């Protein structure tokens, strides 16, 4: 090998080493920038999560306040809860009627005393509810 060839090899090796060092610095800089950007994004996500948590907490408190206000209005006004009680009774009696209609063959063979006792129980329950509702409405209206 001649001196010039050896010199060319050494120069090429030197340039390759310089290029390797340059690429390594670029890679380290890129890794540093990526880590910095990831930390910034993480901080933004944490901030957004805190803001969402605060908003959700406010919404829950508002919902609780509205529900409490509604219940206060609903339970203190006999016009609201008396009609609701009547609707619930109607639904229960309707469900019983539908059941009795779908099972009418079995009910025909049931003891008539059991049927009479059931009807009497329902009538007594409705009577007690009506009495209690009227007394509660009187007590609430007398306070106004």
From TrEMBL:
Keywords: Membrane, Transmembrane, Transmembrane helix
Stretches for region Disordered: 1-43
Annotated transmembrane regions: 80-101, 113-132
Record's compositionally biased regions (Basic and acidic residues): 12-43
Listed name of the protein: Uncharacterized protein
């Amino acid at each position: 090998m001649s001196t010039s060839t050896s010199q060319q090899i050494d120069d090429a090796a030197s340039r390759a080493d310089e290029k390797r060092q340059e690429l390594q610095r670029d890679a380290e800089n890129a890794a540093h920038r990526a880590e910095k950007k990831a930390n910034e994004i993480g901080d933004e996500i944490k901030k957004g999560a805190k803001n969402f948590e605060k908003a959700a907490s406010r919404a829950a408190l508002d919902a609780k306040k509205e529900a409490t206000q509604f219940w206060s209005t609903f339970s203190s006004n006999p016009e609201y809860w008396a009609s609701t009680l009547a609707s619930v009774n109607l639904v229960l009696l309707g469900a019983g009627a539908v059941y009795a209609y779908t099972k009418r063959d079995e009910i025909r063979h049931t003891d008539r005393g059991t049927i009479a006792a059931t009807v009497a129980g329902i009538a007594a329950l409705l009577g007690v509810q009506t009495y209690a509702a009227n007394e509660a409405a009187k007590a609430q209206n007398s306070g106004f």
